[in-house]
Write a structure and sequence with these properties.
By secondary structure, this protein is α/β, with parallel strands linked by helices. Helix content is 50%, strand content 13%. Helix 1 crosses helix 8 and helix 2 crosses helix 3. The longest helix has 24 residues.
Length: 204
């Protein structure tokens, strides 16, 4: 059994984090080494800067004007270049890599802000293709209800109409990318995880 690279995607509030945790536990229970990682990373200079921007802790280049969608998503691409080096290192050691967000997020959120779908696919096409990529789908209205329960800085929270646009792009990616699988994430989490396992178990 070789190492596998699995990605988890979804709009904000989709509940994908619970499914990542379930799969980590499932692999650990079977003594399968797994490395959990995220985008943006915590690394300098790009990942840590992105997190500062999303928390509203960094002023944009021109005070009072938000960073452009292209500039922000370019930071994600730069962060990813270093991240994939780590991903490949872990895979080479026989570890499964579970990644919470990957280049699909860059395309989905960037295109929702008006960027070109084809252009941003091209900017990310050289990154490794995962063995599986899951898109956990919920209606934007449900995602907003989940988000509103969180006590977080809402400066960069996506509003309802934005989430609808992001979801539309994700659905387009699911149709385009053969490794991408749509999972309905409105049922109870344990029931959803059964659907995840149906796709993971052939890799074991």
């Amino acid at each position: 059994m070789g190492a596998k690279f699995i990605v988890f995607e979804g709009i904000d509030g989709s509940g994908k984090g619970a499914q990542v945790a379930f799969l980590v536990q499932y692999l650990n229970d079977r003594n399968i080494p797994a490395w959990l990682t995220y985008e943006p990373t915590l690394k300098e200079p790009y990942g840590s800067r992105i997190r500062q921007i999303l928390r509203g802790e960094e002023l944009p280049p021109e005070q009072g004007k938000p960073m452009s969608a292209a500039a922000l998503q370019s930071l994600y691409v730069d962060d990813r270049k270093g991240h994939v080096v780590e991903i490949l290192e872990h895979l080479s050691r026989g570890e499964w890599v579970l990644c919470d967000r990957y280049w699909y997020s860059t395309v989905a959120y960037g295109v929702a802000e008006g960027l070109s779908f084809d252009e941003w696919i091209e900017k990310n096409r050289y990154f490794p293709v995962p063995d599986l990529a899951f898109y956990f789908d919920v209606p934007a209205e449900e995602a907003m209800r989940r988000i509103e329960k969180r006590e977080l800085d809402k400066r960069y929270f996506e509003k309802l109409e934005k989430l609808k646009k992001v979801r539309e792009v994700y659905l387009k990616l699911v149709e385009r990318q053969k490794e991408f699988h749509l999972i309905d994430n409105t049922p109870p989490p344990d029931q959803v995880f059964k659907e995840v396992l149906k796709r993971v178990q052939p890799l074991l």
